[in-house]
Amino acid sequence: MSETIVIALIGVAGAIIGSIATMAGSIFLHCLKERAAIKRDKPRKELLLEMLENPKYQWRKLKTLMHVIGADEEKTKDLLLKVGARASEDGQPLWGLKKRNPLPKGKQ
Domains of the chain, with CATH numbers? Predict the structure, then answer.
């Protein structure tokens, strides 16, 4: 093999190795960020469940839930869905656990 071809192959191999290393680094960073988000959300979910399971309240106001867990509306709704809650059907910003507030028959 000529010296030019060897140099070209080394260049191609370097590019491939560099690309693989970059992708691996990106995947690793993504996994770390996801793990941190899960860890950060756990206490918020626990607090939401504690509030929603309180026998004193059948439904909770979204603003109250947002304020207590310190999250914006989108994040709060996402966490509420993850803990098994649902919004009320009357258009008011109220949330309750599905197990305590099942959908009426025929609306499921």
Answer: 3-97 (1.10.10.10)
